[in-house]
Amino acid sequence: MAKTKELSKDTRKSIVDLHQTGKSESTIGKQLGVKRSTVGAIIRKWKTYKTTDNLPRSGAPRKISSRGVKMIMRTVSKDPRTTRGDLVNDLQRAGTKVTKVTISNTLQRQGIKSRSARRVPLLKPVHVQARLKFAREHMDDTAEDWENVMWSDETKVELFGINSTRRVWRKKNTELHPKNTIPTVKHGGGNIMLWGCFSAKGTGRLIRVKDRMNGAMYREILSQNLLPSVRTLKMKRGWVFQHDNDPKHTARATKEWLRKKHLKVLEWPSQSPDLNYTTGNIYTASVLSVLFLIIPSGKATSLSPFEASEPCLSHLTRYFNNFNKLFCCLRFS
Questions:
Q1: Which residue, among 255, 247, 252, 245, has the nearest Cα to 222 in the 3D structure?
Q2: pLDDT digits over 129-187, tens only?
Q3: In angstroms, rounded to a whole number, what is the distance separating the alpha carbons of residues 261 and 22?
Q4: Do the Cβ atoms of 94 and 55 come closer than 8 Å?
Q5: Residues 300 and 157 in one domain
Q6: Do the beta carbons of residue 177 and residue 170 sit within 8 Å?
Q7: Is the pTM of the predicted complex or chain greater than 0.90?
Q8: In a domain, 59, yes or no
Q9: Domain range enclosing 19
Q10: Dist CA 192 CA 198 (whole Å)
C-alpha cells in the first residue's frame, strides 16, 4: 500500500479549530477534503498529547546497551588503534553479538570516526624541552630575520615506495593527540639521496648524492653549492646558515670549515618536526612530479629507481629551482 501524503501543520491546526467549534468529524472531513478516519486520528492525538506535531518514534531497540557503549568508549579512549573486530569480540565475550557496522554507527553517535593516524617525529622529553627553549629564544625574531636564513637538508626519497596507513578512532580536531599519531624516526632506506638549500628569497641548488655521504663529502657539497646559492639569491650581509644535528654536520672538521668561512650557524633542536617534513615534502614533490611527467608509465615499473632517476636529474633540478619565492615565504618566514 502506497504511503499517503502527510497533512500540513496548517491543515492539522484547522481540524482542531473546527472540532473546538463543535463540528463533527465527517463535516470537518468534507470541508477540508480529508478522510474521516484521519480527522479522528488528529483529534485523538490532540486530546491525548495537546499537540498535532509528529511524536518521536521509538524505532528498533539498540543492540548495544548503555553499559556496552561505555565499555567501547573506554577501550578506544585507552587505545585508539583498536579495530572494529577487536570491539566485536569484546562485546561477544560480554554476551552481546553485533556486527562491525553496528560498532561504527555506535562510535559515530559518540562523535568518533575512523581516521588515518598522522605520522609525527618520535619526540622524547629532551627533544620537547630543546624545542621549547629554541622557541623562547627566537620568540621576538622578525620576519626579516627569518628571511635571512639559508635552510638546508638532505633526504632520501622513495620513488615507488608504498606507505602503509593505520587508522584510529578519534574525535574531530584531535589528530595530533599522541594516542592518535604514529611516531616516526629518520632512519630507513630510500631510492635517491638529495641535498638542497633554500631561503625566503627562493631555492638554491639541488644535487643528487650518489655515494655514501661522509664529513669530507658534506664539506665539499657546501663549498661547491652553498656559497654559490647564497650569491645567486643575493642574501643580505650577516645571513645565517641552518642545518640539523647530523654527525657529519656537527663533526669537528665541519665546524672548523664553517668557522674559517665566517658562517653564522643557526642552532637547531634535534628531531625538529617543522623543517624535517617541509624539506622532505619539497624534495618528494619535485622527484615525483618529474618522474610522472617524463617517464612513461609503461617504463616506470621496468626501470630500477636509480636507472629511472638518471635521465631526469636535470629536469628535477630545473623543477626544484622553479619553486617560487611566494612558496618559500609561506613555508619558512
A1: 255
A2: 888 898 898 899 898 888 899 988 887 765 544 455 678 888 888 888 888 887 765 55
A3: 104
A4: no
A5: yes
A6: yes
A7: no
A8: no
A9: 9-49
A10: 19
